[in-house]
Amino acid sequence: MRNIINFIFIFIIAFFCTVTQANTIPTIENNEDLIKIIAQLSNKNSELKNRLNWQKEQLDHITTNQNTILAQISHVQNTLVTLDEQGEWLSFSTALGETLRLQLLNLPEKPKPQAIDADIAEAKVQQLNDNNFLKQLEQYSNLANSKLDNRKINEYRQLLREQRDLLKTLMSGYDTIILELTKLKIANSQLISAIDSVNDAAHRYFFWVADVNPISTSFLIDLAKDTAYTLFSVDTLSQIYNASLDIIKSPLILFLLLAAFAVYIDFKAKPKYNQYLEKTALRVGKVTQDSFSLTIKVVIYSLLMALPIPILWAIIGYLMQANWQYPAVVALGYGVNAAAPILWGFIISAYLASPKGLFIAHFGWTAQQVRSAMKYYQLSVWVVIPLVMIVMSFEQYNNRQFAATIGRFGFILLCFALVFMTNAIHRAGVPLYIDKRGSGDNLLSRILWLIILSAPWIAIIATCFGYLSTAQVLLGRLEASVTTWFALLVIYFLIRRWMWIQKRRIEFDRAKQRRIDRLAQRAKSEDEHTTSVNNQDAIDEPVIDLDVISAQSLQLVRSIIAMIALISMILLWSELHSAFAFMDNIKLWRTKAIINGTEVEQYISLSSLFIAILVLMITIQLVKNLPALLELGILQHLDLTPGTGYAISTVSKYIILMVGCMIAFSFVGIDWAKIQWLIAALGVGLGFGLQEIFANFISGLIMLFEKPVRIGDTVTIRDLTGTITKINTRATTIVDWDRKEIVMPNKAFITEQLVNWSLSDAITRIVLTIPATIEANTQLVMDILLKVAKQSEYVLNDPEPQVFLVDIQEGIQLFELRMFASEMSHRMPLRSEIQQLIIKEYRQHDLVLPFPPLQTNLESCGRKTGRRTYTVGTI
């Protein structure tokens, strides 16, 4: 892409140069014109000569850089050879390790990004310009047979020849510059690759090797000597004093003053911040006043309030590092910069854990729990931060001269401080993983806490045995991982609070709507009681259980955050991949693979097994949470029916499962070429032996795409009526009216007669058969039936209810009341309410129900015979 951009840039520049230079050929008519042209040519030649000199200097500079980089490449490659030769002896000699570490410290830095591509493009532009000038010179007049001054003509021709030669030399020089710049670019890439190789080898050889001597009885004496030497003999205090004077005189002191002013403003704004927290906390939990924007503002304000002090801290560290003439100050500045983000994290935690802050007021965590977690906050600020500065400073000072004594002692104290902090957070009951029930007390959370609690103790033991660098790197990565994990946990609770607020609002709106409907119904039936009803009813804020709010959405959020956490852990630990290269040397079993038609024997290592397990874990997570992920991210934005979305999700799950298993099996030596014949044989065998299972599987796929039934539909199949709750590829689950779950094979839905009560329209008809004596007034009975139908809230007005006198049997009039319900769940309440109203109206009008007293019919079809027979209990 960069080459294409450069080409376009060169083409545009060359085009404009050609356009601007066109029609600029001078005309010579007299000696005055000739003198002007000679002066222009002379100036141009002088300019070209200056450019030639610049070209030579540029070539010398590029050549010098090439030689320097080639020497560095040679040095790095020699270091790599030395590491490969001496690496196996590192575990036997600490002195050898120190010598090799010093060689690594003397390695050159990676080349910084240079504008080599831009220089090459500029050289090509200049080359095109010179070519245009050269072509333009061909159009100059040769002044043959002219009456002009011969001496001036000769001078004119000589200048033209000289300019042609200069342009050709410049064009050739630009070719050389482009070639040398390309070589320099390649050399930079080779140096970067060589340095990466040395770093990988250093991780591989040094990571699991002791870098300092184990602690002995003389450790405290050596520690006291080095401390005294650092404070007095090295003249550390004098360096700090002189560096402070240089910082005060530096123009960069302005940034320090601005940061100090921001800290002053921050302290002044703290009372207003606390007032805002108190004002916000009063609104949290009230359905009509609570808002997620309140929580977001609290988070943003807390981050901003915690920012000035770390910024001031980082600026101080940067100014100290800039004083390169004072090594002790530079090392201390490195430690100050390393502690700045940790300080910011501690201050943020303090703001969020305030009594009216995010954790207590918004997340609903108990004040006792938060106080217990922040028990050692003062320890973290006044002990952990200085210890981090000490450890990181002595890692950089004078080739780790005091890392084995002062640095190691500071690191051990830091580990003890982390022990107190992690135990306090653990006793507070802070979860590291929340399961689907919303509980933090689960196996994974206990395993994570066990790792975190034991890590500082393991680091102390490893440090005592001399594995200082290994313990520092691993503990640092682990603490960074824990910080990332806690940040994602806070994000999870933020999303959970947003869902909780939305759920409360929806329930509150529904409660208000139900009250309005109830009042309207009462006003319709009993106008005289409207006033009393308004005085007695009040709007109650619904109380919602957090564990039942959007369970699938919360599970999706947990899965997404878990995937983000997994990716973050991979990125954090990816730099140490070479340190775990020893797993490649642990051979588990042999396998054979065909490469380019040749059978090659390969070994499956422990790392391959771990990668396969990781792929399977990711695959399982995707398969478990793919439906909600697709629904939230893609399907809800498309105009699809629910069945189509469910079909896409189901098929996608099986595709991901198949691809993930194939990838995982390939890492352990089981690839497709080896199992395809086995799968083919199993397919034939299963086709005969498990015919019904395959028939149900194919029927399940047909159901997913043809959609004769959907989740939530009410169906009748065979003698079973119920609601579809789950559609799998083998069977479908139906819940009947007794709330029994019946697992029905999918084949039955495809091959047998199926009644779907809500496939395209959930409205169903209910037919009640009501008897009356032969003496009863027929029109009165029909009016009564229509009246009770219109009184019921479950009966639809469109289609409107109808009443017919359908038959006369043995001195009994038989009426049919035909009504429509909006959904299946209203059928039984409608029947019950209508029949109660009929009995009530019959008694008010002194009508008698003959024997049998009440006969009902649920069939919506017409009579099968010319005369219908009604018996007691008929449906």
Automatic annotation (TrEMBL):
Keywords tagged on the record: Cell membrane, Coiled coil, Membrane, Signal, Transmembrane, Transmembrane helix
Database matches in SUPFAM superfamilies: Mechanosensitive channel protein MscS (YggB), C-terminal domain (SSF82689), Mechanosensitive channel protein MscS (YggB), transmembrane region (SSF82861), Sm-like ribonucleoproteins (SSF50182)
Chief localization: membrane
Residue ranges of domain Mechanosensitive ion channel inner membrane in the record: 252-589
One GO location term (cellular component): plasma membrane
Coiled coil: 31-58
Membrane topology according to the record: Multi-pass membrane protein
Superkingdom of the organism of origin: Bacteria
Gene3D superfamilies: 1.10.287.1260, 2.30.30.60, 3.30.70.100
Chain ranges of the Mechanosensitive ion channel transmembrane helices 2/3 domain: 650-691
Transmembrane segments: 247-267, 298-320, 332-353, 374-394, 406-426, 447-468, 474-495, 603-623, 654-673, 679-705
Transferase among keywords: no
Localisation: Cell membrane
Gene Ontology molecular function, alphabetical: mechanosensitive monoatomic ion channel activity
Domain Mechanosensitive ion channel MscS: 693-758
Domain Mechanosensitive ion channel MscS C-terminal: 766-847
Pfam families reported for this sequence: MS_channel_1st, MS_channel_2nd, MS_channel_3rd, MscS_TM
Similarity remark: Belongs to the MscS (TC 1.A.23) family.
The protein's name in its UniProt record: Small-conductance mechanosensitive channel
